[in-house]
Specification:
Layout lengths: L1 H20 L4 H26 L4 H28 L12
Helix pairs in contact: 1-2, 2-3
Catalytic activity: a ubiquinone + NADH + 5 H(+)(in) = a ubiquinol + NAD(+) + 4 H(+)(out)
Subcellular location: Membrane
Protein name: NADH-ubiquinone oxidoreductase chain 4L
Length: 95
């Protein structure tokens, strides 16, 4: 159990480090956010499995994370159509 906790913590913090270091491209930021969501899902699943609870909440969490990913991809596509690239600094209405 402790090994899984360390694995989830490592995944979570490495995703946060990548998110903080790659602030140029929106696609890399979305990928690192999805990695953080995946690590949180893994920790939630292991926690619920260890305690013997039902996995209904994990399905709700997966549904919300898929909606978040779809919204992020929609923003990415609209940004590429308007600006021509996915550089954050070129999109002047964000800053």
């Amino acid at each position: 159990m402790l090994m899984y906790f360390y694995l989830c913590s490592f995944m979570f913090f490495s995703g946060l480090i990548v998110f903080a270091s790659n602030r140029k491209h929106l696609l890399l930021m979305l990928l690192s956010l999805e990695f953080v969501v995946l690590s949180l899902y893994l920790s939630l699943f292991i926690y619920l499995e260890h305690l013997g609870y039902e996995f209904f909440f994990s399905m709700i969490y997966l549904t919300m994370s898929v909606c978040e990913g779809a919204l992020g991809l929609g923003v990415l596509v609209s940004m590429i159509r308007v600006c021509g690239n996915d550089y954050i600094m070129s999109f002047s209405s964000l800053w």
